[in-house]
Automatic annotation (TrEMBL):
Keywords: Membrane, Transmembrane, Transmembrane helix. It holds the Pfam family DoxX_2. It is found in: Membrane. This is DoxX-like protein. InterPro entries: DoxX.
């Protein structure tokens, strides 16, 4: 019985690690693109009505989220807190895209919102 539970927890932790690495990579690539102020990013932010002064905050939130979910692999409460923050961040992104009728930009934000929720559930299951 104990061996079965150990294998089950290990499988959940492996899933957590995979989603964590995926999310961290996506967040760091996105933060990098925002920091480079590529045409695509600046046009998208303008369409969404995001002020230029807010870019540094968004970059910081993404880097902090990546660091938080990675640290959460070692200390669960930090990972859960970071994943909650990312869920709110991406839910806000979904709302921003839908508010301006950007139906092409909303689905990726929905996927990342769901991945953030998965991180909460997976980390909570391994505590």
């Amino acid at each position: 019985m104990l061996a079965s539970r150990t294998i089950e927890v290990s499988a959940v932790f492996v899933s957590l690690a995979v989603v964590t690495v995926f999310m961290s990579a996506v967040l760091l690539v996105s933060a990098g693109a925002k920091s480079l102020r590529t045409r695509h990013i600046t046009e998208q932010m303008a369409t969404l009505g995001v002020p230029r002064g807010m870019m540094a905050f968004l970059i910081g939130a993404q880097v902090a989220g990546a660091a938080g979910v990675l640290a959460g692999l070692w200390w669960g409460p930090v990972g859960i807190a970071a994943a909650i923050g990312l869920t709110l961040y991406f839910a806000g992104a979904v709302a921003s895209h839908l508010r301006v009728g950007d139906h092409k930009g909303a689905p990726p934000a929905v996927v990342l919102t769901m991945a953030s929720i998965a991180l909460i559930a997976l980390r909570a299951a391994t505590l």
